[in-house]
Design brief:
disordered N terminus; elongated; Rossmann fold; binds flavin-adenine dinucleotide; 16% strand; 3 domains; 50% helix; six-stranded parallel beta sheet; Elongation Factor Tu (Ef-tu), domain 3
């Protein structure tokens, strides 16, 4: 066991360098343009010029932030493998409000600056921008769409609307972003007066656009034509969980690590509109991919009715909830309900590596015991101990209730020396992770997978 032997943070350092170097260059170009531009040093030309320069910086920072936002959620492998989906999604969310503030500051500062120079009212200046300045009308529409697209992302609204509605509105943001690009090149002073910066800026857009197209679209299409995935079988695991077996050609070449997930789109009426993430619930075997889906809502609830032979688009594999995180020889898995899916193949692979594995499996009742036979079979083979904890079955002879501090200390006294993996419903994860922290388990030892983006 070696708790200090954590993964070096070199990939993270490299990643931050890749992202911050262009930002330093952008600020450098902006500074140079404001001091050494064709019309001299703008900082010395009075208030409107200073507002103009700062307003331009706000616009540049907003656009740069948007590029980073897109890269964070474009499912770019080299980024995702460093941070994982969860963190990138959180980062994407965190970056939203500052970017929005930069956009608003950009608009206000430019209206203040130019209206003062032109001796017009703010309102007349805004209208003039819309009517007479190259592609600013498109930028206005873009910002409008941006605002509309953002409303469903406000946490209060997000909690009250279906995922699909939120997703549709979120797509509007991308249309809005697209509309704002034109005015940057047609009237953006930093670019029209400095061709090197213009090419550099265009290069950044091409870099981001190419990543988006490659990782969000091309890889999925390529995967499909390489493997021709289709539904092979649907097997009920419990009363509300079905395993869907997906097969195709050359599956031995579709490589994934136990614990990873795929995003699937079933190509048939009623399903093709939505792509959903599901963990792979079997180790790689070259014959099929298995996902095990709990009936939780409008999409997952209908999956049992899928027809065999249905073509499937598979995006992935994704995720960093893998054996790479298990640094210690001892591992504790804490699963809640359908959160067992990533653990099922992880248990097998870590058993083969000789790790000491303990699974606390929280379920409501016996009927909810997913992979019961498979897990019991694995538990007979040695270094794997499974403890089911049932919350709604008073007659259960084993552990009852929830996964709490008392149970963790009693059932796994050496928990603090283990790498601990948690996956389950959000309230359970929150409670368990809080409990682990209160037990002085270090954050670097706690790994978790969220089943909601
Ligand atoms: C990394 C990951 C792995 C997962 N693995 C499994 C698994 O192995 N088995 C399993 O049963 N479930 C898994 N899920 C959860 C599963 O994706 C959702 O339960 C399912 O998409 C719900 O869709 P629905 O329309 O049936 O339910 P809804 O009631 O419409 O949605 C319930 C919640 O699921 C989330 N969700 C809905 N649609 C999507 C989507 N297209 N993309 C992302 N999130 C969405 C939203 O947070 C939503 O609030 C996983 C989720 C993630 C993020």
């Amino acid at each position: 066991m070696n708790l200090m032997n954590r993964r070096p943070s070199l990939p993270k350092v490299r990643f931050f360098l890749v992202l911050s170097t262009p930002l330093v260059a952008v600020i450098g170009f902006w500074l140079f343009n404001s001091v050494q531009g064709p019309i001299g040093n703008l900082w010395e030309q009075g208030r409107p010029s200073i507002l103009l320069v700062i307003g331009r910086l706000m616009g540049l920072l907003a656009a740069y932030g948007i590029m980073i936002q897109i890269l964070a959620v474009a499912r770019v492998r080299w980024i995702e493998q460093v941070f994982g989906f969860d963190r990138l999604t959180r980062f994407h969310r965190l970056l939203g409000p500052p970017i929005f503030s930069f956009i608003i500051a950009h608009i206000i500062l430019l209206i203040f600056s130019v209206s003062e120079k032109m001796e017009m009212s703010w309102y007349s200046q805004s209208v003039d921008f819309f009517k007479n300045w190259g592609h600013v009308d498109l930028a206005y529409w873009g910002v409008g769409l941006f605002v509309v697209g953002l409303i469903p992302s406000i946490p209060w609204v997000r909690r009250r609307i279906p995922y699909e509605v939120w997703y549709f509105f979120h797509l509007l943001l991308y249309v809005g972003i697209g509309l704002t690009i034109f005015h940057q090149f047609s009237i953006g002073g930093d670019f029209t007066l400095n061709q090197t910066f213009e090419y550099f800026w265009a290069g950044l857009y091409i870099f981001v656009g190419a990543h988006l197209v490659y990782f969000r679209f091309w890889l999925i299409i390529r995967n499909y034509f390489r493997h021709r995935f289709f539904v092979e079988d649907i097997v009920p695991e419990t009363f509300d969980v079905n395993s869907i077996y997906i097969t195709g050609k050359k599956l031995e070449k579709f490589q994934f690590k136990p614990g990873q997930f795929i995003i699937v789109r079933f190509c048939c009426t009623g399903f093709w509109q939505e792509a959903h993430p599901f963990s792979l619930s079997q180790t790689p075997n070259g014959k099929h991919l298995r996902i095990s889906v709990k009936n939780l809502g409008s999409f997952s609830g209908r999956l049992g009715k899928l027809k065999k032979g249905t073509a499937v688009f598979v995006d992935g594999p994704h995720g960093v909830f893998t054996e790479k995180k298990a640094f210690n020889n001892k591992v504790l898995f804490i699963a809640g309900g359908i959160g067992i899916t990533p653990f099922r193949p992880l248990i097998e692979v870590l058993m083969n590596k000789g790790k000491d594995i303990c699974l606390l499996y929280a379920i409501r009742n016996r009927e909810g015991f997913v992979f019961e036979n498979e897990l019991k079979d694995l538990a007979t083979k040695g270094n794997f101990r499974m403890i089911p904890i049932l919350s709604d079955e008073p007659s259960w002879p084993g552990e009852k209730g929830f996964v709490d501090k008392e149970k963790i200390i009693r059932l796994v006294p050496d928990a603090a020396q283990r790498d601990i993996f948690v996956c389950g419903p959000p309230p359970m994860m929150k409670g368990v992770i809080g409990t682990l922290r209160s037990m002085d388990v270090r954050s670097s030892q706690i790994h978790y997978e969220n089943f909601a983006f």
